[in-house]
Every structure is written in structure tokens, then in C-alpha cells.
Amino acid sequence: MFNLDPTKILIIVTVALVVLGPDKLPIALKSVGKYWNEFNRVRNRIRDEMNGALSTLTDQIAPVKSAVEGAIGEIKDPFDIVATAFTSGAGLSAQGPSKEHAEAMFGGSSKSSAESYTEDSKAYSTTTSQTTMRISPSTDVFWN
To answer: What counts of helices (H) and strands (E) characterise the chain?
Structure first.
């Protein structure tokens, strides 16, 4: 704690012997030892009380922690299933949406639009005079 090696202790005892004298030195060392032991006793008592309070809090928090972790697991599981399905491509049609489905979702075709389905990217694109919209099974809808 104080990083005292034997030479430092010898120097301290020698200085104390010169200052206090040989008749008061044993009484002073006895007092220092008594106060050092009392300090250690109080420090250990505080440490034990803090550890007890911490373990009590930990015991009280454990059921709440397990309930929260269970709720998070219940919420996370459906998202993991959906994320896995989209990343693996499971359940997605390789053909992409049909032209009729796209027209139903985004309105009928007008004279100023051009629609196409490309086999290489498996995507349906529609282009109007202002925007281009592309729908693909592996990506979201993009507006250009």
C-alpha cells in the first residue's frame, strides 16, 4: 500500500528512535499498531457491507434481467427468421412481380411510360417522364 521496503522501514524506525527516544518508542509503535488494526477492521467491515448490498441487489435484479432477456428473445426471433429468409432468398420468387401486380400496386400504365422486365437482374422496371422505379426480389424499391 505504501510501498515500504525494509530499508525505508529501518530509516523510519531510526528517525522515530532519535525523535521520541528509547523510552517512548515502544509506546508510539504500540499506538500505531492499534490504530492500523482499527483501520483494517473498519475497511474490512465496509467492504463486507458493500459486497452484501451488491449481492442483495444482484439477487433482486436477477428475475427482472431474465424477464427482459426472455422478452428480447421473443421479439428478436421473428426478426431473425425474416432476416434469414431475405438474406438466403428463401421463399422469394425468381420471376419477380408480374406486370399486372405492378400495375395494381402503382397504377395503370400511361402513354408516357415504358415498362420492362429483365431476366438477367430478375427485376421489373417502369420509367415515366419524371422517375424510374425498379422492383427486385432481393432489394427494396428504388426511385431514380
So the answer is: 3, 4
More confident residue, 79 or 31: 31
Enumerate the domain spans of the chain: 6-88, 99-143
Residue 136 phi, psi (nearest 5) = -135, 145
Mean pLDDT of the chain, nearest integer = 75
What percent of the chain lies above the pLDDT cut of 90? 22
Name which of 97, 98, 124 is nearest 113 in CA terms: 124
Q: Is the dihedral of CA 70, 71, 74, 78 positive or negative?
A: negative
**Are the beta carbons of 20 and 28 closer than 8 angstroms?**
yes
Q: What are the residues whose beta carbons fall under 8 Å from the beta carbon of 134, sequence distance 6 or more?
A: 123, 124, 125, 141, 142, 144
